[in-house]
Amino acid sequence: MNTLLVIAHGSRLKESNEEIIKFAKSIKDLSDDSFDVKYAYLELAEPSIFESLDSCIKNNPSGKIKILPYFLAKGKHVKVDIPNEIDKIKELYKNANIEVLPHLGKIDGLAQLIINNYALNEK
């Protein structure tokens, strides 16, 4: 089974980290069960990116892992920090099938989603 791994920054605030857990669960609930959904944090919370990737690979060595960086902009975390964590796991698992998806801010239709959800286009 393939896995979607949602990677967020992580926070010292429990409620913030719980939002990511709920977000991952909502994706799983809406999916057709053709893939699993997991989450990880870059820092300040667990599981770490390394821990989640390690678990995904150990539980399903032949599965593909698609990583969704839960970030609006392509800053240092998206450009450097997340790839560095992925490189660490690839050193351990040379054949790991990992694909990094565009970060959240690059998702097609995001602007329209904001308009639709906040009724900014009311007449």
What do these coordinates show?
By secondary structure, the protein is of the alpha/beta class. It has a single domain (2-118), classed as Rossmann fold (3-Layer(aba) Sandwich), CATH 3.40.50. Helix content is 44%, strand content 20%. It has 4 helices and 4 strands. It has helices at residues 14-30, 49-59, 76-92, 110-118; strands at 2-8, 35-41, 64-69, 97-100. It has a 4-stranded parallel β-sheet, with helices on both faces. Helix 2 (49-59) packs across helix 3. It is globular. The mean pLDDT is 94.
CATH topology, what is it called?
Answer: Rossmann fold
How many helices? The count is: 4
Q: Using the CA coordinates, give the radius of gyration.
A: 15 Å
Shape: globular
Strands, total number: 4
Helical residue percent band: 40-55%
Entry keywords:
123 residues; 4 helices; 4 strands; four-stranded parallel β-sheet; 44% helix; alpha/beta
Write the layout of secondary structure elements.
Elements: E1 2-8, H1 14-30, E2 35-41, H2 49-59, E3 64-69, H3 76-92, E4 97-100, H4 110-118
Parallel strand pairs: 1-2, 1-3, 3-4
Compose a concise summary of this entry.
This protein has 123 residues and is α/β, with parallel strands linked by helices.
